[in-house]
């Protein structure tokens, strides 16, 4: 008797071929990204420097974590699941580059633990690029806030 293959969940994506290719190459999928996000924010929340910045602003963590899995699904797998605007959410945060370095350190640690080496390289490269642009946005608004208005 022939065994039926269990049906794989369909890949929902804006670019299904690219998503399937990245998944095959990196071993990343929604399950791995969920583990990455949950493991990463557990570290962030217990970090003495980063923890308070988040806990002052996020009281209900479940929706934040769900949003962050959608974000990473969009960034890493091009699924188009995230529809937000991260820049304004980081504008004016009380941070220096040292906070972003720490953020990246914890992200790398978690990625090395839960992803394949190819998967970790894929998400870390993207995190580093986005961290630089969010840092610029945060610092620009800090400066804008400290300069007397010319108007
Ligand atoms: C020191 C570094 C960082 C700090 C302190 C920080 C802090 C925060 C906080 C407090 C929020 C919640 C804002 C709110 O809901 O009002 C947030 C949201 C978010 N962060 Fe960060 N963040 C940092 C770095 C990053 C990096 C490097 C990324 C991406 C690689 C990132 C991606 C996001 C995204 C996608 C959201 C959700 C925005 C939305 O509501 O759609 N963050 N962050």
From TrEMBL:
Gene3D superfamilies on file: Globins
Keywords for the protein's UniProt record, in alphabetical order: Heme, Iron, Metal-binding, Transport
The protein's name: Hemoglobin
Presence of keyword Signal: no
GO molecular function, one term: heme binding
Xref: SUPFAM superfamilies: Globin-like
Positions bound to heme: 64
Pfam families: Bac_globin
Transmembrane stretches, start-end: none
